[in-house]
Amino acid sequence: MCGIVGAVAQRNIVSVLIEGLRRLEYRGYDSCGVAVLAGGEPKRARSVARVADLDEQVCETRLEGVTGIAHTRWATHGAPVTDNAHPIFSRNELAIVHNGIIENYETLREMLRGKGYEFISQTDTEVIAHLIHSLYHGDLFAAVREATGHLHGAYAIAVLHKSQPHTVVGARQGSPLVVGLGEGENFLASDALALAGSTDRFMFLEEGDVCELTLEKVRVFDRDGKPAERDVRQVAAYGGAVELGPYRHFMQKEIFEQPRAISDTIPQSDVFDASLFGEGAAKAFEEIDSLLVLACGTSYYSGLTAKYWLESIAKIPTQVEIASEYRYRDSVPNPKSLVVVISQSGETADTIAALKHAQSLGHTHTLAVCNVATSAMVRMTELSFLTHAGREIGVASTKAFTTQLVALFVLAATLGKLRGHISAKQEADYIRQLRHLPAALNSVLALEPQIIAWSEEFSRKENALFLGRGLHYPIALEGALKLKEISYIHAEAYPAGELKHGPLALVTEAMPVVTVAPNDALLEKLKSNIQEVRARGGQLYVFADADTKILNDEGLHVIRMPEHYGLLSPILHVVPLQLLAYHTACSRGTDVDKPRNLAKSVTVE
Ligand code: F6R
Q1: Average pLDDT over residues 118-131
Q2: CATH for 3-242?
Q3: Ligand 1: which of 191, 249, 296, 381 to mutate, most ligand atoms within 8 Å of CB?
Q4: What positions does the domain Glutamine amidotransferase type-2 occupy (predicted)?
Q5: pTM for this prediction
Q6: DSSP secondary structure string, 370-413?
Q7: What would be the CATH architecture of the domain defined by 448-588?
């Protein structure tokens, strides 16, 4: 989703800004732009193509400056056309870039029109530009602080004004923004990653902060308008651009990285211990009587899977909710419930808002399962468990999902042990099974050629049904989500027992029905569901554990999973579904890593 970069320096910073945008490209965008103060005036270049095109433009026009801001935009208000691309100007004196959504932009626009401001774009951002301009009396920092008092909604902004040639002002509320500290130069970005190569010292701004960057100094005021100190953190882990290597897309690379990602996420320790979740976890885990899991999309499905583990291994009641629903409904808060947020990015606006909502209702015990150590969610929660998937570039989440599953299994086993529900032998067995997962995953990945053969059939379809039962119902949901988001084939998932309550009416020869069939307690029930589909001429594509005795037949296509993996089986069964979606999308020629309309990091509501 939208990305911001800003810089104040004594050298030409256009290449720093463009490189920053390149590093943010993975978040997804549909236009981009850069503005600098050149010869005392703001000058800009904008593109509705890629950052590479913007780079060509700035080279051709020799755009140069020591103070500048840049942006990748994911359209919300107004189509992705040049006029709506950021930076947005106000009267050729002020330039702004903005992430987020201003909810009261219509009221503000009318007020500003009344003051004679002309609106050129359809963006809500132009309202902020004119608002700050209208409040500017020689002090940009003061004008931005005053303007933020009038804004409702979420934003991260970076602003410059022609009368202050060595100043960039930033503000955040609901969208992330970090300050990068240099020597005689300072930077601003929506993600520390954007500034790799320029600095490794960062200040993570807090909600409501407004900051002023000049060559030598950074000033921060908090939401109450008081000067504030923010810790400076060394973040050295951000290396160079991630290479694709022998793979065709990042998604394929990330699917094949799962054995490594999982191995890095499995705790080194030979026992499940509360300390894996941070200081104070043992006390917190003792005080809780239930779990409330909040997440979106794929991360929500990992939460749904975890519910089975938490209730069966730890015998702890677990409720899993879509973050964007929870935040707006009247729930009955239970302060003894541990709130678990699950997120790859740690910056998903809906999940952050749901966490804040839970905290406002009196939930004090909170845990983030997250892939980004410096993210807002990790900073906002009492406890955390980091997944070590590494950077995930493909918009469709793969290795983040399986590493979340590992983290949540470890949570279930830890709580199960603390609550006296697992024996020392069971604990040792779980540890052994976790350690064997990377090898088991490698055998699943070896199924790729068989899956490619199926994907050619799928690429000619427009609909698909996914079935699973129990622990594997969320895996069916995840398989359907993967297929629809990258191949644009309509796909739905059902718990297989629900088929006869409606969806069976859809089953014809034209409808592929993908079934996840582990050899578990529900296998015989699932086999009956398979027969229901076959009897109606449906085409079944079954990922069956080797010992299920489900065999290839008329209308029944089977790929054998190498081994049955008990409670951890969802981690293996999701992988062929990822590969099926990936290869189907490749056959259909879609933009796999950047599917249409989607963004990697969903930082707006
Ligand atoms: C789907 C996908 C999304 C994300 C969702 C939450 O492949 O990636 O559904 O899972 O947007 O994102 P995070 O996990 O960053 O909070």
Answers
A1: 96
A2: 3.60.20.10
A3: 296
A4: 2-216
A5: 0.80
A6: ES-TTSHHHHHSSEEEE-------SSS-SHHHHHHHHHHHHHHH
A7: 3-Layer(aba) Sandwich (3.40)
